[in-house]
């Protein structure tokens, strides 16, 4: 088991958290558009799962590094 396995486990935990309570996670403050865009931070790594709540589904937009290229994923909305 290495760092990649740890990162994968962190992402799985984030996806589970999103699945269980997407509305309980914070809206992304940097985004001021019309969509309901939120984030879930990983505990150990500087990454966030950026997702959108659309009707009754959750759409993952990006797994973004928290210190690089902010909002690079905007075109995906």
Q: Summarize this, please?
A:
The protein is α+β, with helices and mostly antiparallel strands and 77 residues long. It has 1 helix and 3 strands; from the N terminus they run αβββ. It has a single domain, classed as YaeB-like fold (2-Layer Sandwich).
Task: Please characterize this protein's 3D structure.
This protein is α+β, with helices and mostly antiparallel strands and 77 residues long. It has a single domain, classed as YaeB-like fold. 23% of the residues lie in helices and 30% in strands. A hairpin with a 2-residue loop joins strand 2 and strand 3. The longest helix has 18 residues. It is globular. The model has no long low-confidence stretch (mean pLDDT 93).
Instruction: Return the CATH architecture.
Output: 2-Layer Sandwich
Helix percent reads 10-25%
Gross morphology = globular
Largest sheet: 3 strands, antiparallel
Please mark out the parts with pLDDT under 50 across 5 or more consecutive residues, or reply none: none
Distance between the termini: 35 Å
Descriptive key words:
3 strands, YaeB-like fold, alpha+beta, globular, 23% helix, 77 residues
């Amino acid at each position: 088991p290495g760092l990649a396995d740890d990162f994968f486990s962190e992402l799985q935990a984030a996806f589970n958290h999103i699945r269980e309570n997407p509305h309980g996670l914070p809206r992304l403050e940097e985004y001021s558009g019309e969509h309901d865009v939120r984030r879930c931070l990983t505990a150990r790594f500087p990454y966030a799962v950026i997702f959108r709540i659309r009707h009754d589904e959750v759409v993952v937009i990006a797994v973004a590094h928290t210190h690089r290229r902010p909002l690079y994923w905007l075109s995906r909305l």
